[in-house]
Specification:
With about 525 residues, this protein is mostly beta strands. It is built from 5 helices and 34 strands. A 4-stranded antiparallel sheet has the order 1-33-32-31, with no helix packed on it. It has a 4-stranded antiparallel sheet with strand order 2-3-4-5, with no helix packed on it.
Length: about 525
């Protein structure tokens, strides 16, 4: 379409030239033939003009929530463009109406933990029904399904953690996906047509982070797709985006549930893997293993994303192990050692990740060994200093909640977006919460219930003034931009029109003491 907008004259000329060649031999030069040819040529010019104008308008249309000069890259991966949960969008409302922000759509989707990704007027996610696991492409403004691709049978349909875990990734007109069995595939983003697929866990005998299903969302940098697999000689694997063939495989550490993360040190492109018992750093293009730093022994798992600000790397883990800050070296050698800036019991993370804003980290410090499946996890939402680990403020009691539908002042364990000087939280109870990014105090601007009744571990995304959220059965699109920027012809619902389900932890009432399995807790390295 952009071709038409910029080269309408050339295309019109080309069309007419080809028209003349094709038809001149078939139409005699009678007056009737000349008249027909002139009419068809005129009609062709009109069609090309309409297409050209339409395409030009579409090409000029810009995202009103982006500052001038900022490219609209959408939200192409689980943590956004730069893998840090930050969005460049502005013009977000500082407060919401008493009845809550407008709802563009809500729909039954199916089981799974996949977040949305977005580009243009489309959003993508993964889910499963009784028929199988699917990649879905939806219209961002209406929620209408544009296409769906079935890639596998249902996974743990009646289990504790049913459905896909990984989030799709968008790159160069393609959708990359990973299923819990280790099946990885590439689809055409426009049509859902399969381009390639392969099962990396089976091929490389993946170990570690597959016990609860393969969860690593594909990470794409340039023409490479990175996947922590954890097999012998394949701790990290890089595939070719175009055909899925292996470019390199390296390392021997078992994987965990965390995707690969691209970083840069001294201008050098690297890929970081936060694995089961270690974190590793490879040269991005070649796969050369630069660092393998041991963190623990025995069963361990790492689902929360690291935070990187050159040269500092912050890692958080579950099992009440807290977090720590490392400084990466300027040069790499077999004898290189890492400098540990600080280590603290503060700010353990499990299934949902913390964010860095300025010089402060915001996130949920989980007090349970791991996230609970029958109730919201215990803990406190904290703000700490990146360079020292010093706590600046905390919110919450740290006591367990028996129902995720009760009214509570707790922020709770939540996925976080950073945008327009604010933190946008979607917590385990299905609440959407707006905070000011304020290192001095916890400043709650607004909150509302969106999808209650099920524990929600899927992080939200922000795209064109809308937050896209989901739980284990439903998905919703909530408009949180300034009211003046909501299109007049956009149909909306109110939050009161979304059925709010209820859940109660009866087992927790009967078993007054929850069991802790000490033998499952990893030992520090």
């Amino acid at each position: 379409m952009h071709l038409f907008a910029t080269n309408g004259k050339q295309l019109s000329s080309l069309f007419n030239d080809r028209f003349d060649v094709a038809f001149s031999s078939r139409l005699n030069e009678s007056e009737k033939g000349r008249k027909l040819r002139q009419d068809l040529s005129f009609l062709a010019r009109i069609v090309l003009c309409v297409v050209s104008v339409t395409a030009h308008v579409q090409a000029e249309e810009r995202n009103p929530f982006l500052p001038a000069g900022v490219e609209d890259e959408g939200w192409p991966a689980v943590r956004g463009v730069d893998f840090d949960a930050h969005s460049p969008e502005i013009h977000l409302a500082d407060s919401w109406p008493k009845e809550g922000p407008p709802v563009l759509w809500v729909k039954d989707l199916g089981q799974g933990y996949s977040a949305f990704v977005a580009q243009g007027n489309r959003v993508y996610t993964q889910a499963q029904t009784l028929q199988g696991q699917y990649v879905y492409c939806l219209d961002a403004r209406s929620g209408k399904t544009l296409w769906q691709y079935r890639y596998d049978w249902p996974y743990e349909l009646a289990g504790v953690y049913p459905g896909p875990r990984a989030t799709p990734t968008l790159a160069k007109g393609r959708v990359l996906f990973a299923g819990p069995s280790g099946l990885v595939g590439c689809l055409d983003a426009g049509t859902g047509r399969l381009i390639w697929s392969r099962n990396v866990v089976e091929e490389y005998q993946g170990q570690g982070g597959i016990g609860f299903g393969y969860s690593c969302s594909p990470t794409v940098v340039d023409d490479l797709v990175f996947l922590p697999v954890g097999g012998p000689g394949a701790s990290m694997v890089a595939l070719n985006l175009s055909d899925g063939k292996t470019v390199w495989a390296s390392g021997n550490e078992p994987a965990s549930y965390n995707p690969a993360m691209p970083i840069v040190r001294n201008g050098r492109q690297l890929i970081l893997g936060y694995l089961e018992n270690a974190f590793v750093i490879h040269v991005l293009k070649s796969g050369e293993l630069l660092l393998e730093h041991e963190l623990s022994h025995g069963y361990d798992e790492h689902s929360a994303w690291p935070i990187y600000r050159e040269p500092y790397l912050w890692l958080a883990a579950p099992f009440k192990s807290g977090s720590q800050l490392f400084e990466l070296p300027e040069a790499w050698s077999p004898q290189v050692t890492l400098k540990n800036i600080w280590r603290s019991r503060t700010l353990s993370n499990d299934v949902l990740s913390s964010v860095l804003v300025g010089d402060q980290i915001y996130g949920f410090d989980i007090f349970d060994q791991q996230s609970k499946t029958q109730r919201p996890s215990r803990g406190k939402f904290r703000c700490i200093e990146l360079m020292t680990g010093e706590e600046l403020w905390e919110q919450g009691s740290g006591r367990p909640e028996r129902s995720n539908n009760d009214t509570s002042d707790e922020l709770g364990q939540a996925g976080i977006i950073v945008a327009d000087g604010k933190l946008i939280l979607f917590n385990e109870r299905g609440e959407l919460i707006l905070l000011r990014a304020n290192p001095k105090q916890c400043e709650i601007l607004a909150r509302c219930k969106v999808l209650t009744g099920e524990l929600t571990w899927t992080p939200p995304i922000l795209h064109r003034g809308c937050v896209f959220v989901r739980n284990q059965s439903r998905a919703a699109c909530i408009y949180i931009g300034e009211p003046a920027l909501l299109p007049e012809n956009q149909s909306t619902l109110s939050l009161s029109e979304i059925p709010q389900e209820r859940y109660y932890d009866w087992a927790g009432q009967i078993l007054t003491v929850e069991p802790e399995y000490a033998f499952d807790i990893p030992s520090p390295a």
